[in-house]
Amino acid sequence: MYVCMYVIMNVTVRDALNQALDEELERDEKVFILGEEVAQYDGAYKVSRGLWKKYGDKRVMDTPISEMGFTGIAVGAAMAGLRPICEFMTFNFSMQAIDQVINSAAKTHYMSAGLVPVPIVFRGPNGASAGVAAQHSQCFAAWYGHCPGLKVLSPWNAEDARGLLKAAIRDDNPVVFLENELMYGVPFELSEEVQSKDFVIPLGKAKVERQGSQLTLVSHSRPVGHCLEAANVLAKEGIDCEVINLRTIRPMDIETIEASVMKTNHLVTVEGGWPQFGVGAEICAKIMEGPAFNFLDAPVVRVTGADVPMPYAKILEDNCIPQVKDIIFSVKKTLNLL
Question: Transketolase-like pyrimidine-binding domain location, by residue (predicted)?
Answer without folding.
Answer: 11-186
